[in-house]
Amino acid sequence: LELGINFDHIWQKTLTVLHPLKVADGSIMNETDLAGPMVFCLAFGATLLLAGKIQFGYVYGISAIGCLGMFCLLNLMSMTGVSFGCVASVLGYCLLPMILLSSFAVIFSLQGMVGIILTAGIIGWCSFSASKIFISALAMEGQQLLVAYPCALLYGVFALISIF
Amino acid sequence: MATTAAPAGGARSGAGPEWGGFEENIQGGGSAVIDMENMDDTSGSSFEDMGELHQRLREEEVDADAAAAEEEDGDFLGMKGFKGQLSRQVADQMWQAGKRQASRAFSLYANIDILRPYFDVEPAQVRSRLLESMIPIKMVNFPQKIAGELYGPLMLVFTLVAILLHGMKTSDTIIREGTLMGTAIGTCFGYWLGVSSFIYFLAYLCNAQITMLQMLALLGYGLFGHCIVLFITYNIHLHALFYLFWLLVGGLSTLRMVAVLVSRTVGPTQRLLLCGTLAALHMLFLLYLHFAYHKVVEGILDTLEGPDIPPMQRVPRDIPAALPAARLSAAVLNATAKAVAVTLQSH
């Protein structure tokens, strides 16, 4: 706790991401913590490395631009604003299922029909969790699909890096 | 400017006796110069001048207190310390002036709140607009309604970028100068913004009743057809299928845009000019997107073949130049067979 890293909150947020049907608590996003997302980004890069793709630069570049884009969009679409740290934190946490995908890609190739279905499922899972957390934190009812779609595009680009 | 400088000078001397010393000094002219420079950036109303004035008075009080504390050290060091104080104060004031100017410019230009009303949509609305963008309406006698929103068009442009990236990756396109991502984003946004502006300019010349926002929204939703066609034909590499979709789906979305524009323009020449340009650009863009990243696949396939091919089968590269149907069908069958062979080989 001296470092400002609240393990309980990190674990709670991770569970929220991993159970897509579990209702998210709007208050967990009040303190933005970037420790978890940083770890997930590194883990993603590491699994890509295991598959033989040295693309840390792409991962960081795309996450930065994607976070900026989502930040602008969410600020425009929500009644209350949102801070950049909050957006980065949520998007980073929801990258967790993508790590599963890239670790799967280490052993099996994702370029067949199985790969496509798995990829589509994982992208859906990531964007559904991200939009669920955003909706509950920003109180934007009825717009979950509108928030989920840009997240799906962003995670789709990440998935493209995993596959090719 | 002289009038506003005087009260500032007066206020300065009121802030403390230490400041009065500056004006008597030869280098006191320096502070007056700074004053003028600060006055330069109040190009707005007098409100801003007064606001600036008040803010500067407050800052100077704070500065004066800080300077008072430093002055004692400066006096201790003698004349050299005094000049050092002055240069530091000068630098400080320049920094403050620059920071003020930058923050004002930032709050003026980076205020994205002006775009807020264009993103206020619901999923049902977006869905219905997407479907309507493929249905041309025949009623051209009075202006058709265009939804002025930016969420749908922006998402469609990003979707097109994603589909392009996917297509480039599957066809192993190598971009020599620049990156894949940059090319895709540049192409799509360039088309959306550039062609919208161009058609808006033409609409202005032809006296059509359409605003820039409406043009952006119209063209953005017109990209829905492009997304569908490219998504299907990047995965199923059949040229005949692409031409069919190009005409059908591309044609439908172009017809819709053309109908909307015709309903908002008066005069046959103007209508022809405006709608002809839009139709040509829209259809040609789809053609370009398909073939720019498709030729690479065929190039690779040709090199994989080897020397023992009859010259007839080298035709696939020339398909865009519209050759007779017999060669076309042979080439199509060849292209599909080769594509299947390549995919089997790569696994």
UniProtKB/TrEMBL annotation, chain A:
Gene Ontology BP terms: endoplasmic reticulum to Golgi vesicle-mediated transport; protein transport; regulation of ER to Golgi vesicle-mediated transport; vesicle fusion with Golgi apparatus
GO cellular component, one term: endoplasmic reticulum membrane
Swiss-Prot/TrEMBL keywords: Endoplasmic reticulum, ER-Golgi transport, Golgi apparatus, Membrane, Protein transport, Transmembrane, Transmembrane helix, Transport
Limits of the Yip1 domain: 17-161
Residues passing through the membrane, by range: 58-76, 82-108, 115-140, 146-163
Keyword Transferase carried by entry: no
Keyword Thylakoid: no
Membrane topology category: Multi-pass membrane protein
InterPro entries attached to this UniProt entry: Yip1/4-like (IPR045231), Yip1_dom (IPR006977)
UniProt-annotated location(s): Cytoplasmic vesicle, COPII-coated vesicle; Endoplasmic reticulum membrane; Golgi apparatus membrane; Golgi apparatus, cis-Golgi network membrane
Source superkingdom: Eukaryota
Annotated family: Belongs to the YIP1 family.
Function: Plays a role in transport between endoplasmic reticulum and Golgi. In pancreatic beta cells, required to transport proinsulin from endoplasmic reticulum into the Golgi.
Subunit structure: Interacts with the COPII coat components Sec23 (SEC23A and/or SEC23B) and Sec24 (SEC24A and/or SEC24B). Interacts with YIF1A. May interact with RAB1A. Interacts with YIPF3 and YIPF4.
Protein name in UniProt: Protein YIPF
Organism: Leptonychotes weddellii
Taxonomy of the source species: Eukaryota, Metazoa, Chordata, Craniata, Vertebrata
From TrEMBL, chain B:
Key word Cytoplasm present: yes
Keyword Transferase: no
Protein's name according to its UniProt entry: Protein YIPF3
Subcellular location, record wording: Cell membrane; Cytoplasm; Golgi apparatus, cis-Golgi network membrane
Region (Disordered): 1-51
Transmembrane segments: 150-168, 180-203, 215-234, 240-260, 272-293
BP GO annotations: cell differentiation
UniProt record similarity statement: Belongs to the YIP1 family.
Coiled-coil ranges from the UniProt annotation: none
GO cellular component: Golgi apparatus; plasma membrane
